[in-house]
Amino acid sequence: MSITMYQASVPVFVRTLGNLKGMLEKAAAHAAAKKIDESVLLGARLYPDMFPLTRQVQIATDFARGTAARLAGVEPPAVEDKEQTFVELAARVDGAITYLRTLPAAKIDGSEAREITRTIRGVPKTFNGLDYLLLYALPNFYFHTATTYAILRHNGVEIGKTDFVGAFP
To answer: Mean pLDDT throughout 8-18?
Structure first.
């Protein structure tokens, strides 16, 4: 059995983004129940030189949208980074999921050898589609979603592994 580029990307992004939205909803409920200003959690970081929670979510959604678009051979949609509440972050996640669902499998499948160039720390780097997805995009996407989880968990939001990986059928 083989797996297609679409199967290895879009459903993975959609599932994990759905889980991310659930964690954001739990964080909003936690903040309300504990009477914590949302901005405290949204600005939280694991270490001073790391991005805060809001930026982690923005980057995760950017990776999902951008990766799928580039694999499909289209320009990723531009999305402004302006979220200041959990509701706005959840809406951003919804927007990414909605966009991902517009990309047909036929546009992504067969992109293993598609040349994709990204500028990383000021240096252009060219990948084939398979390496871009597996060695660059997915690790970065998971890093930012896992960091979001870690920030929330560290700040007392009652989430666990199932919130991150999701329930299994």
So the answer is: 98
Tokens 């409920």 correspond to 29
| In-domain check, residue 152 | yes
Dmax of the chain from CA atoms?
Answer: 51
Range(s) of the domain holding residue 36: 5-162
Q: pLDDT of 23-61, one tens digit each? A: 999 999 999 999 999 999 999 999 999 999 999 999 999
From 78, 75, 71, 58, select the one nearest 133 (Cα to Cα): 71
Confirm whether 65 is domain-assigned.
Answer: yes
Return d(Cα 144, Cα 120) in angstroms, integer: 16
Nearest to 102 by CA among 68, 75, 71, 70: 68
Number of domains, the chain: 1
Q: What is the CATH number of the domain that holds 109?
A: 1.20.120.450
- What pTM was estimated for this model as a whole? 0.96
169 inside domain: no
Name the residue with tokens 């994990």.
16
Confidence of residue 76 (pLDDT cuts 50, 70, 90): very high
39 within domain boundaries: yes
